[in-house]
Amino acid sequence: MATTTSTGRTLTLRRVDSVAADATVRHIDQLDENALELFYAALEGARPLPATGTDLEPGTVVVATEYYRVEAA
Amino acid sequence: MTEYVIIGDGISGSSAAETLREEDPDSSITVITDEGEALYNRILIKEHAKGKLPEAPISIHDEGWYEERDIELSLNTHVTGVDTDEKVVRTHEGEDVGYDKLLIATGGTPTQLPVDDSDAEGIHHFWTFQDARKIRESAEAADDGVVVGAGLLGIDFAAVCGAQGVEGKYLMRGDRWWRYALSGQGAEIMHDGMREVGVEPVFDSGVDHFETDDDGRVVAAVDPNGERYECDFAGVAIGLTFNTEFLGDIDLEQDNGIVVDEYMQTNLEDVYAAGDITQFYDVLLGEQAQNGSWGSAKEQGRIAGVNMAADGEAEAFEWVSSYSITHFDFPFLSFGHPTLGDEYAERKYSDTEWRRIAFKDGKVVGGVLIGDLAPQSKLKQLMREQRDVADQKEVLLEETVDLDDLAPPQEQ
Which residues belong to any copy of the DUF7979 domain (chain A) (predicted)? Predict the structure, then answer.
């Protein structure tokens, strides 16, 4: 797992090796600037990914240097 | 009821259609595309070609999306001409589609290498979902690959070779990858990334001609130095030719793309353009510019839709684009116009971390970040604010950029 958080109203990024056919997948270039910054900060462990303020939903897979599934913390 | 016609169902055309329906609920909207499928995610098709992503998540809209919004979608339809006096679009089936306002969002087609046998079987260009399917199939069966085109599109072919276990040779004309935006130091990080995935960059090379077998399949690429590289897979990405042939001799201003202002208006009344095909007026740069990123195309489509519906100049396009490469262990991001500076500042921080900032008239106009992307939002902010900061390069090259360390902006 790339980032874990235990506080409320945050999301977790879990590295995944494969993607289901019915998954929602977004490339990192589709994230808006705020979401991009928060995504990278969460990936580097700098701060948790908030559950609000971005359009990242649990279940979405984000394609960056690896694939990361957004999960509810 | 206003009749809108959009040629092209890529992200810019589709974004415009969605915006028009929101802004003008009672209008007629027709989207015409020569592709056989509705909007898909063009920046994810490379992941499909790499063999990492199934097809289904790449589709964005099915035909039902258009029906729900009462948008007429014409797939597999080639536009053969536009008559801006009669205000009609002509299709290959002989149909005339009338419009009150027209959006051209036809993008481009990969340019073919002007050498012998460049259309042989096994030689691929990469633009559509259908291209990606063929590339995946071909790469899965290949042993040796050759990649041509030392830019942002070519590197996707290198990544396909790496992911599919194809031993690749990346033939570059110059001494490094993307030489217009990267110095030797930055490029070397990318070259190491290529080597890590099994693709060897070859410099001062290129392709003079391909060799084929009796069945017309590619078997080798020969570079201008006479070096021969065996291959059963080749990827060519030397640029795009914009899809404007159908416009014929109408008096539309073009300059390696369709010239539009910041409202996406062409020089012809009621004719707009959006997406990769535009030479748009960049209000941050202060001159015409071009951009092929997903976000830029989507926003141009939205802006075109807003202004078409308003029948005026309701909103200008003002955007700092981003383009990421996600093929290697380290992230890569270019933003703005990294090749259009009149001065540059750069620094290498580690074997996988490097930064270059492009300035024009003292202001940030773009850059490239490798490894550490943390400064991207601050640098984009400076670009948006058009602050004169070229004399404070040291602050911007600090490992951690703190905008509070910049001298306060001078009163103009």
Answer: 10-71
